[in-house]
Write a structure and sequence with these properties.
With 388 residues, this protein is an alpha/beta fold. 38% of the residues lie in helices and 15% in strands. Helix 1 packs antiparallel against helix 2. The longest helix is centred in the C-terminal third of the chain and has 20 residues. The N and C termini lie far apart (56 Å). The structure holds ligand P1T.
Amino acid sequence: MTRIREHDLDHALGTRAVHAGQEPEPLAGAVTTPIYQTSTYVQEALGRHKGHEYARVSNPTREALERNVAALEGGSHGHAFASGMAAIDAVLSLLSAGDHVVCGENVYGGTHRLMTQVRARLGLTFSFVDTRDLAAVERAIGPSTRMLFVETPTNPMMRLADLEALGTLAAGRHLILVADNTFATPVFQRPLECGADLVVHSTTKYLNGHSDMVGGMVLTRRDDLAEQLAFLQKSVGAVPGPFDCWLALRGTKTLAVRMRQHDHNGRRIAEWLAADPRVQAVFYPGLPSHPQHELACRQMSGFGGMVSFEAGSLERARRIVERTRLFALAESLGGVESLIGHPATMTHAAVPRAMREAMGLTDGVVRLSVGIEDPDDLVADLDRALGD
Ligand code: P1T
């Protein structure tokens, strides 16, 4: 179980990003945490060792990452997993057959697939609701409900859930509130401070930031949940290798500065798209026209680089995603380079069409992961792609 040290929380977020969880390495004084590329650790005598026995259970590089991201989220414990999906699966493994989960209807397609096509077979039950609507969430809670799982902003419709209100609701009903903070990152939103019990991340995205590894994290302030997660981490074994942890740790050092540029570019592109008659609607919480803009300003300190828009039809969407040059047509998000995607056929293809359409995720929705390039170049790229 990786717990942060008191001094990991000493400083502001930008400083924590660079330093938290890491000490100069004692052997040679390397300022960068080494990659402890080992599967096991020598024991001096039976039961006597330096705190590590086997690398599925613990690894110093992994622990540095776990402490670092826990400190960024204002948590006390971090657990790293081999992917965002493995992190979410560990969270669901806290439950038992017969337990019920209330989940946001608009979550990443892979999260919906894991719940409905894997975990449901093993005895969990799920209700998918619009988590913008507190009354709908309350109505979905039944006697066997144990967990409330939300994304905010949601992927890809950029809808928000009121974390403080949900935190109060979850505490009153003894539910575990889980927030997927992949889109906002701890730079702009810290769900644990609003009452969430667990934060999950796909570290593949902004935390790593360079599109060169796959990973996931779970962060918490609760000792009881941290203990269970550590047990699951070693028992199931869906752990990341030390090199991927090292890449993610290198990524988090620049998280605060990268997010500033993602946010700057995201706002610029959202405003530009909103003013363009070729675009039917723009989904971005930083726009005053976003129906939850007021909540966004209260709950988030920035809005980031994820922007979705309605192009009008599958044909229009296809034309746009195939014509951009800087925005690469690809799954994933959160890297320094801009990506463009078509959720209905890519990230959310596993979600039934009727459910997609009910939440406005039509075949015309295009999703942008706005990178940190010069925003003038990004606008010019989109302008050309939207043209006839
Ligand atoms: O890809 P992985 O690291 O396993 O993370 C899954 C995941 C979890 N949560 C959110 C909000 C996500 O967006 C993702 C992965 N999403 C994409 C690959 C995507 O393009 O949306």
